[in-house]
Amino acid sequence: MIPEFADSDAPSLPLWLIRPGEAEPVLPPEIGPFAANWARAQGFAAKPGQVCLLPSAEGGLDGALFGIGPEPAAADRPARERFALARAAEALPAGNWHLANRPQGFDLTQGALGWLFAQYRFDRYKRIEAPRARIVCPDGLDRDRLIAMAAGEYLARDLINTPASDMGPGELEQAARELAQRHGAEIEVTCGDDLLARNFPMIHAVGRAGAQPPRLIDIRFPGEGPRLTLVGKGVCFDTGGLDIKPSASMALMKKDMGGAANVLGLAETLARLGLHRAMQLRILIPAVENAISANAFRPGDVLTSRKGLTVEVNNTDAEGRLVLADALALADEEAPDLLVSMATLTGAARVALGPELPPFFCDDDALAATIQGAGRAHADPVWRLPFWEPYEAMIEPAIADLDNAPSGGFAGAITAALFLRRFTGQARAYAHFDIYGWQPSAAPGRPKGGAGQAMRAILHALPEILR
């Protein structure tokens, strides 16, 4: 699917955004007494998401009112519902619409972006009708930037929603190649036993039992300036390996490449905006399937990483940090200005913060504040958790340098982040995002299924980070 606004030159109907008043909503005088009386007769109270279609004198459609609820009590307080205007995209009749007013305190950029997000449907296997109400991009907004952000989100959703039967390591590689071709980037893929020859032993160990050989995807975009490297976990399906997951836990494991999908989506947005030209953008994706076969890696195995650190495997279902470790070690060798990893990594992160508030880890207080502030300002919330030094001992087993799955179950998101940090050190700054990558139930602008997370937070933080 392609996100798009209605043509500004085409006829369109007015959509009025209305807040509730003390007794009843204050209706705009421009709609006239006939439409105002009609709205009152319909019981329109400007409740969030409430729609009232306005008839013309001839019985046709003359516009609509849309309730946006009361003005927020504080500008910096997160709204209870993100992308509220997306409800209008779902509810209005087909046709072109334009915003007829701009209420104080209403974020037009978020509203327009949410409308684009609401247009998305995953229809690869089944015809699903998308909302046919389209909006004209409001004056003063950056139309191209909004479309670029929506395109990145669509790409991430498409990749996550596609089942492993059609999105294995090979198909993920193909999606990366198509992105590289669209934007003039160079791509190199190290596959199968070549991973051993080029010193990516843990990517090979995790993926060697899969139906498709494991691989490391390396994309470099043309550009000059600070180095930004994005590393995304590309576990295209996760059975848990020999420590096999129960069926209920395996049901959503097509989304275990959500980190890869998100870094590709972010790269799509950066490239569409031409921002990659002002930096040296690199994308690294270890793409594997964690499967069960005679040559699967085992609990108790000790693996030697690219960095030389040895890792005792105490749970084959903690495989994401293993493949990320080799990719992070490679990325770190170039000492990028900012190194970012994104992964659907731990259930502990979901227990702590739920499905739509991904934690991130960063040692740089100023960088962390910039990222968290950008996420809040652009309806892409993230929450900082600590690299808690006293827990380092938890990832140090008796017979190897590191333990991939400390016993006890405490602080699982933190110990996973501490594990990954051991494979960095030369990068000027490092941030790790433990995302969920999935919308469990439909919400405005966010249909149930694959979801982008932290992409816009990173996008809007970059100018300050890389200046």
Automatic annotation (TrEMBL):
InterPro entries: Leucine_aapep/pepB, Macro_dom-like, Peptidase_M17_C, Peptidase_M17_N_1. The keyword Hydrolase applies. It comes from the Bacteria. One of its GO terms (cellular component) is cytoplasm. PROSITE patterns: CYTOSOL_AP (PS00631). Keywords: Aminopeptidase, Hydrolase, Manganese, Protease. One of its GO terms (molecular function) is manganese ion binding. The keyword Manganese applies. Its EC number is 3.4.11.1. Gene3D superfamilies: Leucine Aminopeptidase, subunit E, domain 1, Zn peptidases. Residues 315-322 form the Cytosol aminopeptidase domain. GO terms for biological process: proteolysis. Signal peptide: none annotated. SUPFAM superfamilies: Zn-dependent exopeptidases. Pfam families: Peptidase_M17 (PF00883), Peptidase_M17_N_1 (PF21337). Belongs to the peptidase M17 family. This is Leucyl aminopeptidase. It comes from Paracoccus denitrificans (strain Pd 1222).
